[in-house]
Specification:
Layout (H helix, E strand, L loop, with lengths): L24 H7 L30 E10 L5 H14 L3 E6 L3 E10 L2 H15 L9 E9 H10 L10 E4 L1
Parallel strand pairs: 2-5
Antiparallel strand pairs: 1-3, 1-4, 2-3
Length: about 170
């Protein structure tokens, strides 16, 4: 399933050089001015386009792991479960949901060009499907969006969120 914001893809942004705090002024002068993402630098040199990781074009979508947390007034557990199951049925990209009578967490993979697009879709998910899935009138209280490499690195290091198994809707 391919999702994303309609419209033209953004231009590739220029690479910027970041300097650490306390870097000597001579080193900053030797490195030259930072590239302006929208055009040539002050000295007329065109910026170097940013390279996409691992052979991807800068405009191709990536996978992002999303954790959306919602909370609000207490609701009957049966209704919360039924609503989350309906959301999972309507949107099979959902990996897992955990719930209690006053909060829930939804985890899934989103395909998007960048973090901003993935976060925008995630922030709309609960509100747009509140009526159709008959979800409780809760508010979003947390959002984490990380790229696939970061997700797998956290798991390998043993400090990330546990893998989303078992798949489905489960109580806390």
């Amino acid at each position: 399933m391919r999702r994303g914001r309609p419209g033209a893809l953004p231009r590739a942004r220029a690479e910027r050089r970041l300097s650490s705090v306390g870097e000597p002024a001579e080193e900053q002068m030797r490195s030259g001015p930072a590239a302006d993402p929208d055009g040539p630098t002050a000295d007329g040199v065109e910026p170097v386009p940013r390279r996409a990781p691992r052979g991807r074009s800068a405009e191709s979508p990536r996978l992002w792991h999303v954790t959306l947390s919602v909370a609000g007034p207490e609701a009957p557990l049966k209704e919360v479960r039924r609503g989350l199951e309906q959301l999972a049925h309507d949107h099979p990209f959902l990996l897992t949901s955990r719930y209690a009578n006053d909060h829930a967490e939804i985890r899934y993979w989103e395909e998007a060009r960048d973090l901003h697009d993935a976060a925008a879709v995630a922030l709309r998910l609960w509100g747009e499907h509140r009526t159709t899935a008959q979800l409780p009138p809760w508010q979003i209280v947390g959002l984490e969006v990380i790229d696939r490499e970061t997700y797998h690195q956290r798991i390998a290091d043993g400090y990330g969120p546990p893998p989303a198994t078992p798949v489905g809707v489960h109580p806390y």
